[in-house]
Write a structure and sequence with these properties.
Length: about 260
């Protein structure tokens, strides 16, 4: 499903379904510290019902399933949901191919609603009242994010330059450490009760870093097959010349917790 957002990539269409296989293989990369930050807040644990919006291939539900919460995942891409189901075999996780704007669970269904790497895609004026309705009286929205730091990490910076060569309007470039942006409309029914930004080092091989970059919006989700192949050939040549076989990429993680008023 092609998505066009005038605030992203100059309005260039993208489709996560085009890169679902690479997404499933190479984007399950959050280190344990990322999950521990959630647990430290007392969220996504046994006895809680969780809705993960924009679940993609189910990375968050799958990795946190062992902590005992009941998980439901939704995503606009049917291909992503199919990958999530395949990767979640043996786990009691429900998945639905739904856009955020079409989610319609009963009132007071969830203790926590999570959004990892996807919050900026939503129509917040439309979904905010629905999230409020679906959350229990003491419910929380948990927004999560992790990004590489191209100005602090040489390999990440060179990879990013190559994405921009093929996707000049890609707006995912130039990341720096900052709090997660929460639209003003949430102030009506929620309060920001916690946020944190923290450094992370994420381990890659040349293959896995190439796969991670290939599965980004500016490459696999938006370029033609021929363009993806040309980008990948250049990227692997660059990595073979400049990167060791294994290396860390500097990232940062961010968390924002909103409490229902």
């Amino acid at each position: 499903m092609n998505i066009i957002n005038k605030n992203l990539d100059g309005g260039k269409a993208f489709d996560w379904g085009k890169t679902s296989s690479d997404y499933a293989k190479y984007r399950d990369i959050y280190p344990q510290e990322f999950y521990e930050k959630i647990l430290d807040r007392g969220l996504c644990i046994s006895g809680q019902n969780i809705l993960d919006m924009g679940t993609g291939t189910g990375v968050l539900p799958r990795n946190m399933y062992r902590y005992g919460a009941n998980w439901t995942g939704t995503d606009i891409s049917a291909n992503q949901i199919e990958q999530a189901k395949l990767l979640s075999q043996g786990m009691n996780i429900e998945y639905y191919a739904l856009s955020a704007e079409k989610i319609d669970f009963p009132d007071n269904s969830f203790d926590v609603i999570t959004a990892c790497q996807c919050f900026w895609y939503f129509d917040h004026e439309k979904i905010m009242p629905e999230l409020y309705r679906m959350l229990k009286p003491d419910g929380k929205i948990l927004v999560l994010y992790m990004a590489w730091l191209p100005y602090e990490d040489r390999i990440a910076g060179e990879s990013e330059k190559l994405v921009l060569k093929y996707s000049p309007e890609w707006s995912g470039a130039g990341e720096t450490v900052h709090p997660i942006w929460i639209p003003d409309c949430y102030n009506e029914k929620f309060e920001l009760c916690y946020h944190e930004e923290y450094p992370l080092n994420v381990r890659f091989t040349r293959e896995s870093w190439n796969g991670r970059m290939k599965a980004c919006r500016g490459v696999g989700a938006s370029l033609s097959e021929e363009e993806v192949n040309a980008w990948e050939q250049e990227h692997l040549m660059m990595l073979n010349k400049t990167a060791p076989e294994e290396f860390d990429i500097k990232h940062y993680g961010a968390i924002a917790e909103l409490k229902k008023k």
